[in-house]
Amino acid sequence: MMDPFDRRLLEAIQQGLPITPRPYAAIAERLGIQEAELIERLAVLRRQGLIKRLGVIVRHRPLGYTANAMIVLDVPDRLVAQIGGHVSRFGFVTLCYRRPRHGEQWPYNLYCMIHGKSRGRVLQQFQQLSDSCGLRQFPGEVLFSRRCFKQRGALYRSCHGGDRALPI
After folding, report:
1. pTM here?
2. Which of 118, 74, 123 lies closest to 100, judged by CA?
């Protein structure tokens, strides 16, 4: 059973944090608690698995980063954590994660995103990544974005009489 206050807290953060030097303090004030208590409640919700993560969504296209490529690789399962760890250390890699393969049609299990201002620059960065991490030995593809989808965090809805919040 979710605490009614925690439900209000999730509703308060799901549209994003206010752009202010102390966003948690602003939300805490709106909810009538202290900033430290709000931060602790968020930590508890994270430990319980009700919040997976808190992160920034950067709208990269308005900043001039219009050449965006998802690199997909078929890395042996025993190496994927190690290779992913190396790949994620590069500053130009904005996402790096593992996903299950989907048969022969989609054999890839390691994904990383590179945002750049030109395709040439993204390909140079991928070359650097390949050389440094030994990626040439793994089958893969460089998939450039053709369109931009709406970027947002999770939205929560109440269900079962309001006793739980589920991501939608």
Report:
1. 0.62
2. 74
